[in-house]
Amino acid sequence: MVMHVPAEAHGDERGALLAFLDEQRGGIRRTLLGLSDEQAATKPSASELSLSGLLKHVAEAEEGWISRAKGVAPAVARDETNWHECFVLVRDETVAGQLAYWDRVAARTEEFIRGLPSLDETFALPDEPWFPKEDVSMRWVLLRLITEVARHAGHADVIRESLDGKTAFTLVDEARAARED
Length: 181
Known about the structure:
single chain; mainly alpha; two-stranded antiparallel sheet; globular
């Protein structure tokens, strides 16, 4: 664990889950510190992953899951014709623009989750061949988002260290120093 997540107020399960999700978001955000859009698009490993691509993917994934939980279609419909675009910035997209978009998505996620009567409420998984036919809880969707973002935060750590040697700990120190200025 790079950053400590403060203990939740007693009984605040939503707050605890949202805090862990936000801590993982921070892991990805920090990997972008001080990089240009061109550097963030670099793919320094055998993988096709870049930092800007991971950023776009996790923002879209979070928006998509919360939209499904609300019972509405995701803002961006992905299928085999455009799936490749979820891991790369296209047209006029920028890292700054994707970070701002993710801020808006995160705020909507928190508002939605905090406004629910219960995390036990359910929604049906999409009717897609890769999903089982089942209903899942709002708690499940938060845990899904935590694991999705955490998985990619780990990828982002490796990519950033491959780019310039900066580790997660170094980036935490740089982010703290920037806040203190």
